[in-house]
Specification:
Blueprint lengths: L1 H10 L4 H18 L10 H28 L13 H4 L4 H27 L3 H19 L13 H22 L7 H21 L1 H6 L5 H5 L1 H26 L12 H13 L7 H25 L1
Length: 306
């Protein structure tokens, strides 16, 4: 029983709602065109498999991050936040590596089932297979192994692309086998909000990251500029959804996501008033769940509008 608790801790369940936010948003966009454009349709099977694949990729990333930061010495006594499982000795590096292999294989199988059911055997299938392999690689190489890109400050770009552009636009395409440029508005929005979650994490860990040679965007720009950057990420995310609501012009329900806006404002207030980086830790959960709630309200707005 104790071992299961350690593995559950390594999976980091609180990160999983964020992982499926872009899937929910992309699927909602598919519902808008369902039945309006010949040959396009929303698929519950695609939604389920896309969510499963996203969750497996997030768990894989969490496991790799647990092991990678331990190997690089970033997980140490000076780290802020929950103690990691490899760092504490609860899970050995060897067992963590095996878990990563298993999780990676499951993500690959789930992804293959997803793109085959959605697209059949086409050129698009090969393209999405390549994207899937890149996603698995990105999940592993964030902090694990040599030349981990998270240590070079490229984590923000990766999150924006995979949690935003690829997550939303890719899901939309898997449902509809088509692309529509307005999808970029929610794709950019959720990419920016998801990057905000990483930015809070990096603001919290700035001192230890700098001491460990982890050159995140926050370490490079400093705490003061990181707060400005964070404000732009959150405001940019909301503006992206506002832009889509104006463009779609589908009625009042498309504005339901604004119900979360006061929570984002309060979040920003806490970010700006935090007396020390350690005080930012609760805001990770706040922003992740806020982004998830935004995705749910966005989807609810679409359902009511169509």
């Amino acid at each position: 029983m104790q071992g299961m608790i350690h593995w559950l801790h390594a999976f980091r369940p609180r990160t999983l709602p964020l992982a499926v936010s872009s899937i929910i948003a992309g699927s909602a966009m598919a519902m808008i065109v369902d039945g309006r454009v010949e040959g396009t349709s929303f698929s519950g099977t695609v939604l389920a498999l896309a969510m499963l694949t996203a969750i497996l990729l997030q768990v894989l990333s969490n496991l790799a991050n647990d092991l990678g930061d331990h190997q690089h010495g970033t997980d140490n006594a000076g780290r802020v936040g929950p103690q990691r499982t490899v760092q504490s000795g609860s899970i050995t590096p060897e067992r963590m590596k095996r878990a990563m292999v298993i999780c990676g294989m499951l993500a690959f199988i789930s992804g293959c089932a997803l793109i085959t059911i959605a697209l059949g055997f086409t050129l698009g299938t090969m393209l999405f297979l390549a994207i899937g392999l890149l996603a698995i690689g990105a999940a592993v190489k964030y902090t694990f192994g040599r030349n981990a890109y998270g240590y070079a400050g490229l984590g923000d770009i990766s999150v924006f692309l995979f949690f935003g552009i690829v997550g939303v636009c890719g899901t939309f395409y898997l449902h509809t086998s088509a692309f529509a440029w307005p999808v970029l508005f929610p794709a950019i929005a959720f990419g920016l909000l998801s990057t905000g979650v990483l930015n809070v994490n990096n603001m919290r860990d700035i001192a230890n990251d700098a001491a460990s040679g982890k050159r995140t965007v926050v370490v490079r720009m400093g705490s003061a500029n990181a707060r400005i950057y964070h404000t732009l990420l959150i405001c940019g995310g909301l503006l992206g959804l506002i832009g889509f609501a104006l463009l779609a012009d589908l009625g009042w329900s498309m504005w339901l996501f604004l119900l979360v806006a006061p929570g984002f404002i309060i979040h920003l207030k806490h970010v700006w008033s935090a007396p020390e980086p350690r005080a930012l830790d609760p805001q990770l959960k706040v922003l992740a769940l806020g982004t998830f709630a935004t995705a749910l309200l966005f989807a609810a707005g679409v359902i009511l509008a169509v």
